[in-house]
Amino acid sequence: MDRSVDKWADRLMSGGGTMDRAKARQFVQNVYEAAQRDLTERDAQAEYEREE
Fold first, then answer.
1. How many CB atoms lie within 10 A of CB 8?
2. How far apart are CA 44 and CA 38, in angstroms?
3. Within the chain, where are the H helices?
């Protein structure tokens, strides 16, 4: 996953903003973790609904 985070951080930084590498990596990591939580919640909800 670190290579993916680095790749997306590079893309974010290449947009011409003033974000440094550490902040870009943290932002990407935060987005990734939030997306993972959302997917986990969605999967759990779907499983619950199937069992009902």
1. 17
2. 10
3. 2-13, 21-51
To the nearest 10°, report the CA torsion of 29, 34, 40, 43: -120
**Virtual torsion, Cα 25, 28, 32, 38, nearest 10 deg:** 140
Query: CB within 8 A of 46, min separation 6: which ones?
Result: none
Q: What distance in Å separates the CA atoms of residue 48 and residue 40, rounded to the nearest whole number? A: 12
pLDDT at 19: 87
Place of tokens 């590079």: 10
Condensed to tens digits (0 to 9), the pLDDT of residues 9-36 reads 999 999 887 889 999 999 999 999 999 9
Cα angle at 34 between 6 and 23, to 5 degrees? 40
